[in-house]
Amino acid sequence: MKNKSLSICTGLACLSLLLPLSAQAAGLPPDVIASAERRIELGLNPGLVIIFKEKGQAPVIQSFGKTSFAQDAQLVTPETRFEIGSVTKTFTALQAALQIERGALKTDATLSQIWPQSWGKLNASLNPITLSELLTHSSGLPRMPDNFEPAQPTDPYLDYSAQRLQSFAHTHVLSKAPKTYAYSNLGYGILSSLLVHNSKQTNYAQMLKQDILRPLGMNQTQVDDPAAGLPLAHAHYEGVAVPGWHFSEVTQGLGALRSTGQDMARYLSAQLEPQSISDPELSKAILRSQQILYQSSSHPLNLAYAWHLDKRLQTAETPGPEYSHNGMTGGFLSHMSFAPDRGRGVVILTNNTDAIQDLAQHLMHPESPLKPLLDQRTATEKLNVYLGQYLLAPGLILKIRQEAGYLIVGLTGQAELRVFPEAEADHFVYRIVDAQLVFERNPEGNIRGVTLNQNGKSLYASKTK
Questions:
Q1: Angle, to 10 degrees, between the axis of helix 88-101 and the axis of helix 280-289?
Q2: Which one is predicted more confidently, 11 or 444?
Q3: Which of 86, 268, 289, 291 is 20 to 30 A from 408 (CA-CA)?
Q4: Phi, psi (5° rounding) for residue 39?
Q5: Whole-structure pTM value
């Protein structure tokens, strides 16, 4: 049955419902809407998209805010693209499930069996690693390879090449310690590279498009493509605009996808109702991807194909499994959770690094509280007195500006960060690092310098401009 689409936009919120002709979509709970709107008002998130689905109902998509904090920024809509970060891993894992369904791979296949000869020799200690262990972060591989040295720290995955990956695989000696769950981006880089090679496709993007995205109707989801022409939310790190991330061919499978509210609603529906998919092979692959591959009596998580299952969430009231995965890049956060037995699921996308986990948890478990949102903004006229440049040392300058009610501080050679006011006058604190700024005034009450307190040390900087 075909869907029809209804969109209603008022102010900074845009509601879009995917309405099957035979069903009505419920709206988001009022407390979730209020919390989302408050986050936009306080400048904690430039934009948000929340997708929520209840059993027997169509998914609801509601968007809030703008693509950036700029006054002339576009409204976020269900067609705005966001980087979904490590939620990409669930697509990579689904591709593995699909190849297993086709008989082209087995979960117990080892690297020694599937490592292409053209990639060079594999270190013997890596030979026993299985496909299942790559899928469940239980291979013993480190989070990142020891030869991961980004030329651009603000875009770290851009230049990690196939040659570096193969060099790592040739030289790295795996520890003989017992294998347990340890999240590994590297493992998914290896996994996605093997899947592309095994699929005979030209690259990761083409493989995913043909086997998953196109069959699910996710035509707005793709690896970074500047020519795509779709609106893209701007990345923000700690409330400060930063460049988006890009990925090399061997790192795309761990975090390169960009998607929209509309497409993630389709993905969520497919996970909750795989039997509704017209492609029977993909439907079976989705069911396979939800099978648990890793269990540990000493760890709170079970693992399916990339999906994490927190055993603590299975209670007498919610006995069925609940699958989830987070995603984070340098300026975006994403989260997806779903419980097939309850028919409930949620996806949240935002273009800042301010946490959204409580929104998702509350939608999945209404008894879980939403976090209190404090207004830490300061009036423009009060912030103006701190603006300018402060000399810490020759060639080392603190530059201070303001945006959206917050002071933004940049140190020479480092990224800008927000600082937040403390109860004591002229005291501001960083959130992402353990540091504090204490401003000093002259007898006339004007700011003449600032002291940076960090790691038990204090550095004074005089105001020069």
A1: 120
A2: 444
A3: 86
A4: -65, -40
A5: 0.92
